[in-house]
């Protein structure tokens, strides 16, 4: 922009003070900046300033306020990343605290853009007041604004948090939504380090969250449990919660939950919470909090269709690791009975439960999801246990025949889940041998007309590639498996014919 453009910009800004020319002036500024390079626009904006434009956010007519926000957003976009906050800090502070939603949204979008694009652009000592103003917005009624505030406040430099945590307490005197937003920020901060977790505790947030679990608001309780589980999966988080007897308090809630009218809604949340922790620390959790396992076994025995999906997911998640499998097996007959129940659900239940049961068993039997099991021989105990678990899934027909039939299921979601279990089974030598002995199973796998979805083709290819190097099959079968692998997962005779015709 040349000097004439600067003069025009100044002229338009001056006209903003005249009521009858205000809308036209805002549009003139918008048109002037829209098609000009950012560098030239930025120089003019800096020369003239934005104070008089910003004053228009206080106009009574919504359409004029919206237009003003549009012009200010355009001004900010023309500046280099972070310059709007750094050069117009007091203006941004004013906008963050404004009574109108669109104005607050404009300001927080700019702060968010700055923090995300240039995380070190706003040193804490100079801009801590901006961060505090943003922290207040975690309680904003506008979900878009509060969500941005949560994201920003959760990702600040550590020196900002003593002030942030102190100022954000205002949210705890508001509604459940505002408190949950504050708790989410606290959880995200606390998960970063033991020191920040201790700081959150000193400010009373953790104790407040635990106390609020006695609320009559079911959704509120579930949100708190979800946040606490995020903290509990951190090594310093679980240690802290154990030291503060927080897990004891939560376990006590489960004991008394049966008498709660909202038990069907609350139990899934509590199962997920302890399931997340037991996934990482199965032996410790089973020993100290047997109520988790008792609740899990009771859910399977009850046959409650509302609770079984979460119970299956929880059981499978705990049993994904080698330690989880061994810890579950150590519980004895109740676990064995639960495996048998899972087999029943695989054979005869709703589509959703069949799929979850199949995935549950694939986690219990497979070991490839445990990083500790990939670099060495599998624990002999796991080999024996998983073989027995699989055999107990069905007696008539045998489990492998049953799995073969489920793989043929016309519903792709069920068939895909069955292939996932088959993949887990063939991770063991005993599984390879069972497939080899089951009439028609290997022929079915080699038939490229079965399992047409991309996901099934990929899983099936992985299974066949594993079986192609197995000693469980005759050389003639290995030859067929190897040929399948060489052609890839998506080969078809039809595509070959098309390619040949195009070559001719």
Automatic annotation (TrEMBL):
Coiled coil: none annotated. InterPro entries: ARM-like (IPR011989), ARM-type_fold (IPR016024), PSMD5 (IPR019538). It comes from the Eukaryota. Belongs to the proteasome subunit S5B/HSM3 family. This is 26S proteasome non-ATPase regulatory subunit 5. It comes from Plutella xylostella.
